[in-house]
Amino acid sequence: MINLIFALALMAEPAYPAGIEVHRSDCASGGDDWFFFADGTVISKCSGCESWPSVALGNWRRNGSEVRVELKKAWFGRGRGRIVNVGSVNAWEDYVAVMRAADRDVTIRTETFKAEDFTRTNDDSCEFARKHDRSPDPHAFLRQFEGEHPETFQRVLQPAEFSKMTPEQMRAMRNEVFARYGYRFKDPALAAQFAKFKGYQPRLSNVDDFLSDVERENVKRLSAAEQRTKGKGTDR
How far apart are alpha carbons 62 and 48 in whole angstroms? Predict the structure, then answer.
């Protein structure tokens, strides 16, 4: 009863439920964690999904005492090859990044939240709500670690920044972009280089669909700078 009264009080706030996370990934079979933002966007991240990773972006709107979510875009790892672990959720030997966008008004998925969903505590349930301070950037939910060069996803790099860098440094910087999304390197030296980062899980043979526009541009610029400096490109 107290939670319901608190929920109704929250609904009087114009920005409600912005800044609230509805956490469901602690349940036995996993689940979605939902992150609500003040700009009207919502991000879901699934734990325990056969598609790994699994992140979706959409919008939320209030409808009386409920909040309705419509997901319009999704990023996920599609399993392929042979199944290496059979269970309630199969694990595949290889994953490739896939981005799927809904056509016009067609939604990928809808979900409805009741007022009490935003005030449930984790005292006796695997589902609970809490405040969050995450960014509304879906790529931030896909990246596994920040790394040594976070500027490669924060802003577009300028040519002058490459002037004192060796081809090896540029190669490492460029490949860190892919490593953040769990790219599995064939080069043992690169695999060892990124294994030191906590959270790095090299399970995808292709992560191109996960890259943001800024990251794509920086990969292009770094690759061009490598070619100018070394005389030829250095592939992953």
Answer: 28
Looking at the domain that runs over 151-230, which CATH code has it been given?
A: 1.20.58.1690
Which sequence spans correspond to the domains of the chain?
Answer: 2-136, 151-230
As a whole number of angstroms, the distance between CA 233 and CA 236 comes to 10
The pTM assigned to this predicted structure is 0.88
pLDDT, mean over the chain: 89
Q: What is the CA radius of gyration of the chain?
A: 21
